[in-house]
Amino acid sequence: MVVLNKIYTRTGDKGDTALGNGVRVPKHSPRVAAYGTVDELNATLGMARLHASGETDDALSRIQNDLFDLGADLCRPEMDKDADADYPPLRIVDTQVDRLESEIDVMNKNLEPLRSFILPGGSPLSAHLHLCRTVARRAERLSVDLAGTEDVNAAAVKYLNRLSDWFFVAARLANDHGRADVLWVPGANR
């Protein structure tokens, strides 16, 4: 259980922060950038939830919880030492990726195939989900970049990849099952 009695610690006043294993790194390190962007995604998703209800809101709530799992995963390097840790680090697992895929399949089966690219917009929920999609893509790019030099859980990267697809399909559903999608018209303003 996490207990936060004091919010400010002053330990980061010189520009460094502690990872999940206690090692201190600069706040601009690639690992901090990756899990910081996941935190930004979670906040962006919170804004989207202001426009959601029912099953959609339930699904977004599950994803928000997953994003905390993902942040915990990314802030804890040294995956080869997981077995020796005082407590097992939280890692994204393939079943979380599988759940996203199943939900995408269910959402997508009632949508007409796309004949054009979609401009982000339409309903307020759709516009917010498109923003979530782009932040998820940035978090994915940062995580892939990090994986080029440090250990990163492969399931974490897969989760981000599927999540951006999930947001895309959910945004179409939020636009009256795609009927209110705003379509790109190439060269329309030439």
TrEMBL record:
Kindly state which keywords UniProt assigns to this record, in alphabetical order. Answer: ATP-binding, Cobalamin biosynthesis, Cytoplasm, Nucleotide-binding, Transferase
What is the superkingdom listed in this entry's lineage? Answer: Bacteria
PANTHER family membership: CORRINOID ADENOSYLTRANSFERASE, CORRINOID ADENOSYLTRANSFERASE MMAB
Name the chain's protein. Corrinoid adenosyltransferase
Q: So what does this thing catalyse?
A: 2 cob(II)alamin + reduced [electron-transfer flavoprotein] + 2 ATP = 2 adenosylcob(III)alamin + 2 triphosphate + oxidized [electron-transfer flavoprotein] + 3 H(+); 2 cob(II)yrinate a,c diamide + reduced [electron-transfer flavoprotein] + 2 ATP = 2 adenosylcob(III)yrinate a,c-diamide + 2 triphosphate + oxidized [electron-transfer flavoprotein] + 3 H(+)
> Could you state one GO biological process linked to this protein?
cobalamin biosynthetic process
Which InterPro entries would you find in this protein's record? CblAdoTrfase-like, CblAdoTrfase-like_sf, PduO-typ
Instruction: Indicate the segments forming the Cobalamin adenosyltransferase-like domain, all copies.
Output: 7-173
ATP-binding recorded as keyword: yes
Pfam families from the xrefs?
Answer: Cob_adeno_trans
User: What subcellular compartments does it reside in?
Assistant: Cytoplasm
